[in-house]
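Look over what follows to help learners.
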Amino acid sequence: MAQIRSADDVKVYKIQKFLGLNESPDGDTQLKMGEASEMRNWKVTTQNHLRVRPGYRTVEKFDGPVRGMWSGFVGGEQKTVCAAAGGVWDLTETPARRIGDIWDDMTSFFGFGNKLYILNGHEYLVWDGDGYVDTVDGYVPLVTTAIAPGGGGTTVENANRLTGRRRVRFSADGEATEFQLPESGVLYVDRVLFGTEEAGTGWIADTEKGTVTFDTPPEAGNSNVEVWYAIANTRRSEVEAMRFSEQFNGAADTRVFLYGDGSAKAIYCGVTEDGTASAEYFPDLYEVLVGSENAPITGMIKYYDRLMSYKPDGGAYSTRYEVTTLADGTVIPGFQTVSINKEIGNTAPGQVKLVKNVPRTLFGGNLYDWVYANYTTRDERNAKLISQRIQNTLAEADPSKVFCYDDDRKQEYFLFFGDEKGTALVHNYQVDVWYSYTGLPVKAACKLGDEVLFGLEDGRVVRFSEDYPNDDGQAIDAFFASGNMSFDKDYMRKHSSVIWVSMQPTSNANLLVTARSDRRSDYMDKVISQNLSTFWNADFGNWSFLTNRTPQMERLKLKVKKFVYYQLILKSNYRASDATVLAVDMRVRHTGYVK
């Protein structure tokens, strides 16, 4: 018996996982179900649902841009600090307490030795967690010991770039009263000690000759007379010009490296007489030259027992710690640097981050993860390109303005553009999806417990949290557009009249659903509200008595006729909206061949 078949071919296509942004450079007809060709201010959750991005609330407001932020332990207490409006501020107190003045420029912080150190390219400051920020005076090194009254002795510590002050120890013979310093033409002699006891009188210094003369001969002894003096210091600016820091000493983080003065040189701290590394002691000659002097170091980061360095001319380098013995038997730290990649480096100063325990750099309008383990020889496979899906947007970023932040608790990597729109690209690396935000002119960031604080261009410090459905009362404009879907048959016309949208009821779950096609782009917006009855962030313009927290499915009638390509549009631009879209189903009927 003959069978009559309908020409209609009806099928329901499902988006059950949202896969983030994919800016296909040659068209968006091949995107996967759930990928977006356009997407702003939606985030993808770890369950691949679509949610309006978190909002923020201001916690502090300064008269100038926020220049840097830091959170950690100082003096045994948890502190949160920021630089803004020409000052350093302790945000732990309410209201924020100004703890010092600072050059109004981009600022970085690092904690070391239970203190907080501050770099901005102009000055080098320190804070002990109490009182006020102070200039780092610098450790006074013991340069020579066992000096006979007439001179000589054994070199112990190198001079400190931070200060012209230094110490020497003489071995008195019980007869001499005049002691010759290693240098003449000194600025002053300010301290004389016999053992640990300071001698305030009974001596006189001749700064031109570089001598100290005692009224009576000191008692004979071995390195029993210590003299503190100073010469003109011309190298402090080498430390103050640095902008960034990294801690490294082989397998440990017991030395501080400073870089970012616009040169290919990094300097590292020394170990003081008591055997402790100090961020206030940067000895002469303690420096590493990375690659050619023509291009500066733009990023350094510790990776296992290596220190990775990156440059903007296409260069990546690996430094390892080793001990070097000099000809006189002196043992000093040594750092051997080798090139591992001559093509790819980093162009965003100070913005190399460790993401999933892998260095990530911005270079040539692309993002790279340095994923391979061979960090001893040159290998171009070391760098893995990870930014193909957000290539168009990333190309608009100015590397000199970029600020990067890794929220490892939520496993989100942020790349803030520093532009007028407040653009940010976000990589949720737990599920490997990208999305973009706007309205976030972030210049600095730090953690505060389980939350994140952002410092903005206009001087606000804001708490960024999913508890807030707007930005200080301003609506978050969220937009999602799928790829141009042909529903498996790009040679046929289709008809769709029904969409099902599954949403999670929340306090302000408000959504607009529409479509675009190759026929029209002005289809009617369909409104969905799944608002729980609550007074928390209540929006009385969208009030509801819904109390059931179970996911809700909405059936929408949206007629799109005779199309070949179909784009699903999801929008949310309400003053308060925390919409979460769980899934979307589209009923599509194939009606005939394209003519």
Remarks:
- The longest helix spans residues 236-240.
- Helices lie at 236-240, 391-394.
- The radius of gyration is 32 Å.
- Confidence is low (pLDDT under 50) at residues 1-7.
